[in-house]
Design a protein that fits this description.
The chain is of the alpha/beta class. Helices cover 42% and strands 18% of the residues. The longest helix has 22 residues. The structure holds 6-O-phosphono-beta-D-fructofuranose (F6P). 6-O-phosphono-beta-D-fructofuranose binds next to loops.
């Protein structure tokens, strides 16, 4: 199919580097002499007809900015067929027959349906701090988020050392523990608790005991938001029931992890993937996500990217345990 006009949107949780991807998509489309529209507020904007034609200058100065200039949303309307029908109509009214979506699994679920129900060519760019998409080693935003996390935990370590305290630090990751795992290794955490694994209270208490036996001055336990053991406060209570005199503090890092200027890796990956998304769509690829596997560009079917589990490197947890003794 010959692509006339292209549209780009960001959807779901924002991630640092989304702007670098938007810039790459816009400039590549213009390079190939295609008209490019930016859709604001993700799928909600698609339904509400929030299209704006972009030129090279519209994306000037955004490469280093966190967030997304197109804004983002988690659209409940797009989950309905009526919503998607409206969106398809709006795309057609602008002569758009190529849509590039930047986001995570929810975003790709919607894009896949749009392709399936209305035959609109779609390509996904993985943009989420969670790194939980199959078909790419890195999602855009993950590297920046983990760097933010380790900067915060390094600061927490300073105060933990000064008071001989144990800190339980909760990081983002509703369903995936990539951030917790990398950040845990990078900050010398005593224990890392992930959504992908069952960690028993006994195992946790063993680690705490190990820390005490080794006379560690401070201890950090990194827990992913979606872990199976409980909230950081519940985990703290469990530890206190065995060690009532232990000085424990809880820190929930929250949305600070989603902001900030993207790292070099996120900017470079976003640039590579943005170009590849436009070139892919111009070469009749559709219903796929662009990704980087072993530094090589790969296109993975959206359904596979969503439903196959991105493999987590559990070995890293063992390494963290060895190194934190
Ligand atoms: O998907 C990215 C993410 O940051 C998750 O790690 C987190 O659980 C979720 O988004 C938070 O979403 P919201 O900003 O909508 O509360």
């Amino acid at each position: 199919m010959s692509i006339k006009n292209i549209a780009v949107l960001t959807s779901g949780g924002d991630a640092p580097g989304m702007n670098a991807a938007i810039r790459a998509v816009v400039r590549t489309a213009i390079f190939y002499k295609k008209k490019i529209y930016g859709v604001s507020r993700g799928y909600d904007g698609l339904i509400e007809n929030s299209f704006a034609e972009l030129d090279s200058k519209s994306v000037k100065g955004i490469l280093a900015q966190g967030g997304t200039v197109l804004k983002s949303a988690r659209s409940s309307l797009f989950k309905t067929k009526e919503g998607r029908e409206k969106a398809a109509k709006n795309l057609k009214s602008h002569g758009v027959n190529g849509l590039i979506v930047i986001g995570g699994d929810g975003t790709f679920t919607g894009a896949h349906l749009l392709h399936e129900e209305f035959r609109i060519p779609v390509i996904g760019i993985p943009g989420t701090i969670d790194n939980d998409l199959f078909g790419t080693d890195f999602t855009i935003g993950y590297d920046t988020a983990t760097n933010t996390v380790i900067n915060c935990i390094d600061k927490i370590r300073d105060t933990a050392n000064s008071h001989n305290r144990l800190f339980i630090v909760e990081v983002m990751g509703r369903d995936a523990g990539f951030i917790a795992l990398s950040a845990g290794v990078a900050t010398g955490a005593l224990e890392i608790i992930l959504p992908e694994m069952n960690t028993s209270i006994d195992e946790l208490l063993d680690s705490v005991q190990r820390g005490a036996e080794n006379k560690k001055i401070s201890n950090i336990i990194v827990v992913a938001e979606g872990n199976r053991l409980g909230t950081p406060f519940e985990i703290s209570s469990e530890i206190l029931s065995k060690y009532p005199n232990m000085d424990i503090k809880v820190t929930i890092l929250g949305h600070v992890q989603r902001g900030g200027s993207p790292t070099t890796l996120d900017r470079v990956n976003a640039s590579i993937m943005g170009v590849a998304a436009v070139e892919g769509i111009l070469n009749d690829k559709s219903d796929v996500m662009v990704g980087l596997l072993n530094n090589k560009l790969e296109y993975t079917f959206l359904q596979q990217a969503i439903y196959n589990k991105a493999p987590i490197d559990i070995e890293l947890r063992r390494i963290a345990k060895i190194l934190s003794t």
